[in-house]
Amino acid sequence: MSTSANAEHVASYYAATANPSPERTALAGDIECDVCVVGAGFTGISAALHLAEQGMQVVVLEAARVGFGASGRNGGQIVNSYSRDMDVIEAKYGSETARALGDMAFEGNRIIRERIAQYAIPCDLKDGNLFAACNAKQMQGLIEHKTLWERYGHHELELLEGPALKREVNSERYVGALVDHSGGHLHPLNLVLGEAAAFDISVVRGLAYYTGIVFEAFDRAGKFRAIFGGGRYDNLLAQVGGRPASGVGLGFGDVVIAELLAERVAATPAADGADMHVGFMDEAQRLAALRFAAGLRGDGIRTDMALRPEKAKAFFARADRADAREAAYIGPDDLAGGTVRIKNMRTREERRLPL
Ligand SMILES: Cc1cc2nc3c(=O)[nH]c(=O)nc-3n(C[C@H](O)[C@H](O)[C@H](O)COP(=O)(O)OP(=O)(O)OC[C@H]3O[C@@H](n4cnc5c(N)ncnc54)[C@H](O)[C@@H]3O)c2cc1C
């Protein structure tokens, strides 16, 4: 992301309580990208984030700083409506257009909440909006508003009067209100700053920040996607607000590792020649099995530890194939009783040891 002036946000409650964000440098020279977005407000940053999530190289050009415009200084209300109500839109543009716009209002609400959750954006999100009526005529307007929006699939509206209203607003001023349970309020500047941070991280993932060698590691058979990848970066720390320092970074694909391990475990027989094989029935016994195996190893006993739960039959068959001397299998009863059954695989004799 590039800004030219880093002009300060206009003074406001939001600016005074903004989360820290990095100073960004002005664009110098040429830069190549798939899409260049102009303006780092809700529109630009959200579009950039969507595009980056699709794997595109995106550059955002901003004249001042992220959230400098309306996005950093608005009311912060998530309202499921437009400045003209749906009946006006429907009368002027037809029901099809009105329905599409109604759906878009809900979609926008959903996208905001998804972004906040996905990128853990701290922006003081609170659920619900209240539209209060000062007199009977306004109340009638809210009743009609509710009926109108229900035609567009909005079923989270609730009319309040009497004690129910008092629970929300303890004032004699209002005769009633309409609550939109799906509406909300947030800190708009922190939302756009948080989305900008998420967008920058997407660029980082897209290799744009590497300044030197870039590497990826694959399994020898070339069956899986990259197990891990990384590269050299000279500017990254300064770009995210730290001291300038070069470094090499790499990230592992946890899904790929899990897939690779699952295949290796299935294909690999238990270690031959171990004195003791330790297995367990399900995840609840894994920790006890690990501790037991660690204790054996500590006593100098060469121990093979199962990597995943197995049925007893499969475990003892595997231990047999591996020519194990002894095998210890921990099930729920062993765990409850605090001992484990040890089977001598040659003589078939059994003994118990404390867990
Ligand atoms: C007082 C007020 C209250 C509001 N309250 C609400 C509310 O409660 N709820 C709600 O949903 N909406 C509200 N809005 C509307 C909402 O703020 C806007 O719809 C939204 O912020 C628009 O976002 P944007 O990204 O399109 O524009 P902006 O946030 O204005 O972003 C445009 C960005 O582009 C940059 N820029 C402009 N020209 C250039 C250029 N040539 N080169 C590089 N950069 C450039 C600007 O510096 C700016 O940062 C309110 C608006 C105002 C003004």
Which characteristics define this entry?
four-stranded antiparallel beta sheet, five-stranded mixed beta sheet, 4 domains, binds flavin-adenine dinucleotide, 355 residues, alpha/beta, 12 helices
What does this entry look like structurally?
- Helix content is 38%, strand content 21%.
- The chain has helices spanning 13-16, 42-53, 86-93, 95-118, 136-150, 162-168, 188-205, 236-239, 254-267, 286-298, 312-321, 332-337, and strands at 2-3, 35-38, 58-62, 77-78, 126-133, 157-160, 176-185, 214-217, 228-233, 247-252, 276-280, 303-305, 326-330, 339-344, 350-354.
- It folds into four domains: 2-74 and 189-205, no CATH class; 77-186, no CATH class; 214-263, no CATH class; 270-354, 3-Layer(aba) Sandwich (Rossmann fold), CATH 3.40.50.800.
- The chain is extended, with a radius of gyration of 31 Å.
- Strand 11 (276-280), helix 10 (286-298) and strand 12 (303-305) form a beta-alpha-beta unit.
- The chain has a five-stranded mixed β-sheet, sandwiched between helices. Strands 4, 5, 6 and 7 form a four-stranded antiparallel β-sheet that branches. Strands 1-3-2 form a three-stranded parallel β-sheet, with helices on one face.
- It is of the alpha/beta class and 355 residues long.
- The protein binds flavin-adenine dinucleotide.
- Residues 38-44, 61-64, 68-71, 74-77 line the site of flavin-adenine dinucleotide (FAD).
